[in-house]
Amino acid sequence: MHRRRLLYFTSVNRWAANPVLDPLDGLVDHHEHMRQGQPKEVLPVGKLPLEHLRSLLRQSPKHDPRLLIGPQIGEDAAVIDHGDRYLVVATDPVTFATDHIGRYAVHVNANDVAVLGARPLWFFVVMLLPENRTTPELIETIMADVRAACEELDVALGGGHTEITQGLDRPILVGQMLGEVAPDRLVRTTRIAIGDQILLTQGVAIEGTAILAREKSEQLRGRVDANVLDRSARFLIDPGISVVSVALAAADVGEAVHALHDPTEGGLATGLFELVAPGGLGLQVIRERIPVFPETDTLCNALALDPLKLLASGALLIAVAPDRVGPIRAAIEATGTPVKTIGEVRPFSEGITIVTNGKVEPLTPAFCDEITRAFEGG
Q: How remote is the C-alpha of 5 from its chain's centroid?
């Protein structure tokens, strides 16, 4: 699993119950109350809570005018003006998966570059390896995965750093992907508008399902049919966690695509929130339209997890102008990727909601990803 992006809310239920509050500024900072005369808090596993992240961002160095997209709430990558081209830079670690960790590191970083309409070109990786457990075979296996994933995407391995690190019990990879895009092809979430249709490719939750099947196989064996477990373990390859080709195909259609976003940690629920909340918008999605893989449902039922809040790399959210849904769907389906319309962008006053069997309820981001709960459960 990888730590990504930014939206980790500690008071999301208050926002959901009172949608007139600003989702980024009006949340109660209960951590501040804890700091006044009480023991220091210990932060939970997962994304940094919003109030801490925002405090860090306020302390960022002076803004460089060539940095078109810098550290912001809701952005997948940075964008640097290089004249006739924009350089797009993303960085993301992989911290839970151990099997095929090199493949994860390449693809999750490439996805973050592609959702801005840029083609991934150069990959760098920091490999931190556990003491007393690292063998030459382990290192070669990880690097073979990195090389294979780079070849699949036609990406060059630019460099990085490797070390055996004290205190680790498993490998951790920190990847960085660089790509390029023409200035007029950059996809920015600032285009998203009320009435936009929300499309979802593939389904949920590909990455979470693969990790559960690979890392929790002993716990699941006997509770889940062996064929289902084997298919789930192959999700890393089929259908796979890359959204690069489909993101670039959608971006090629032009300005009809108002936003691209790959839901990752916190699953589809958090990804939808990340898509609209930073721009002060609402949305409504229909639960019955959301494609959930049968294998995902089976594993989640066995472990009492919510598939909509499970690590979801491999799916792509697309906000599309309502009169251009047809051409976008055609471009996506031409890549062999299934796509469905699952909802619509609404005014902020209507909140962020999900309709299940006709019943409208608030849709809140995950407090922590369901895969974290699965690992905490042993």
A: 7
Do 181 and 112 meet the contact criterion of CB atoms below 8 Å apart?
Answer: no
pLDDT of residue 48: 67
pTM, rounded to two decimals: 0.84
Residues linked to residue 122 through DSSP beta bridges, in sequence order = 156, 178
Residues β-bridged to residue 172: 128
* Distance in angstroms (rounded) separating the CA atoms of residues 375 and 10: 21
Helix count and strand count (H, E) for the chain? 13, 13
Q: What pLDDT sits at residue 304?
A: 94
pLDDT in tens, 228-284: 999 999 999 999 999 999 999 999 998 899 999 999 989 999 999 989 988 899 999
Alpha helices, DSSP H only, in the chain?
12-17, 30-35, 50-58, 101-114, 136-153, 206-215, 217-220, 226-233, 244-251, 267-276, 294-303, 325-333, 370-376
Q: Note the Cα 365 to chain centre separation in Å.
A: 12
Beta-strand relationship, 282-286 and 317-320: unpaired
Residue with the larger pLDDT of the pair 240 and 1: 240
Question: Where along the chain do its domains lie?
Answer: 77-114+117-185, 189-376
CA angle 28, 374, 133 (to 5 degrees): 115
pLDDT at 18: 33
pLDDT score for 27 = 38
Helices 244-251 and 101-114, packing angle to 10 deg: 10
Cβ neighbors of 282 (< 8 A, separation 6 or more) are: 19, 276, 345, 346, 347, 348, 349, 350, 351, 352, 353
Residue 76 has pLDDT above 90, yes or no: no
103: left (phi over 0), alpha (psi -120 to 50) or beta: alpha
- Alpha-carbon 160 to chain mean position: 23
> 77-114+117-185 — its CATH code?
3.30.1330.10
Sequence-distant (≥ 6) Cβ neighbours of residue 164 within 8 angstroms: 129, 130, 131, 134
What's the CA gap between 173 and 129, in Å, rounded?
Answer: 9
Architecture of the structural domain at 189-376: Alpha-Beta Complex (3.90)
- Asked if the bond preceding 205 is cis, omega within 30° of 0, the reply is yes
Q: Do the domains at 77-114+117-185 and 189-376 have one common CATH topology?
A: no
> What residues are paired with 93 via a beta bridge?
174
pLDDT given at position 84: 93
